[in-house]
Amino acid sequence: MKKNSIIITVVIVAVAALAIFLMRAPSIISEPANIAGGATETDWVKGNIDSKVALIEYSDFQCPACGAYYSIIKQLEEEFSDRIAFVYRHFPLRQIHANAELTARATEAAGKQGKFWEMHDLLFERQDDWSNRLGVVITVTQYAEELGLNIEQFETDLTSDEIKDNVNDDLQSALKAGFNSTPTFVLNGQKLSNPRNFEQFVELINDALATERE
């Protein structure tokens, strides 16, 4: 019995040590720099658009995990807004999220009237309200009204080929890079194994900034 107890204790200690290691391990997986690249002229960018450090988020508005990371990204924008570029790219998981495509197009349509980020924020902040609804076109149109958009133009843009292409271009860049889940974060050409919290993001971004200064 004592021998079994010792074995069990050793296993528990080993598992605990592994968990601690994983929590402290760097959250970067090396990827070729050209798979996602840096910010482009067609990207939606916040922060310092001239920075050599860019955090790219491939995201799906209906994805619960993306919704959970939303508040962390907002914190990071406050912390690093004058030092790095924050890039949002669409990655609607169409096969499992029925409303992902439409909401992505809603932000693009709002962006045509200068309100991309405002629609982006509303969709994440109210994700629980619309995520599993039918007829989400009514909901996004209500959000457009709330944002003071020209509704006729918004409804036209929502179904335009240009908007559909914008969303699809982002989607194809994610698939070309081999991404298969959301959110996927890329920091200066390196895919991140999603950081667990704000502090881990801060550590990674500070390392990237330090590397650029060298």
From TrEMBL:
<dbReference type="InterPro" id="IPR012336">
    <property type="entry name" value="Thioredoxin-like_fold"/>
</dbReference>
<keyword id="KW-0732">Signal</keyword>
<dbReference type="InterPro" id="IPR013766">
    <property type="entry name" value="Thioredoxin_domain"/>
</dbReference>
<comment type="similarity">
    <text>Belongs to the thioredoxin family. DsbA subfamily.</text>
</comment>
<keyword id="KW-1133">Transmembrane helix</keyword>
<dbReference type="GO" id="GO:0016491">
    <property type="term" value="F:oxidoreductase activity"/>
</dbReference>
<keyword id="KW-0472">Membrane</keyword>
<keyword id="KW-0676">Redox-active center</keyword>
<keyword id="KW-0812">Transmembrane</keyword>
<keyword id="KW-0560">Oxidoreductase</keyword>
<protein>
    <submittedName>
        <fullName>Disulfide bond formation protein DsbA</fullName>
    </submittedName>
</protein>
<feature type="transmembrane region" description="Helical">
    <location>
        <begin position="6"/>
        <end position="23"/>
    </location>
</feature>
<feature type="domain" description="Thioredoxin">
    <location>
        <begin position="19"/>
        <end position="210"/>
    </location>
</feature>
<keyword id="KW-1015">Disulfide bond</keyword>
<dbReference type="Pfam" id="PF13462">
    <property type="entry name" value="Thioredoxin_4"/>
</dbReference>
<dbReference type="InterPro" id="IPR036249">
    <property type="entry name" value="Thioredoxin-like_sf"/>
</dbReference>
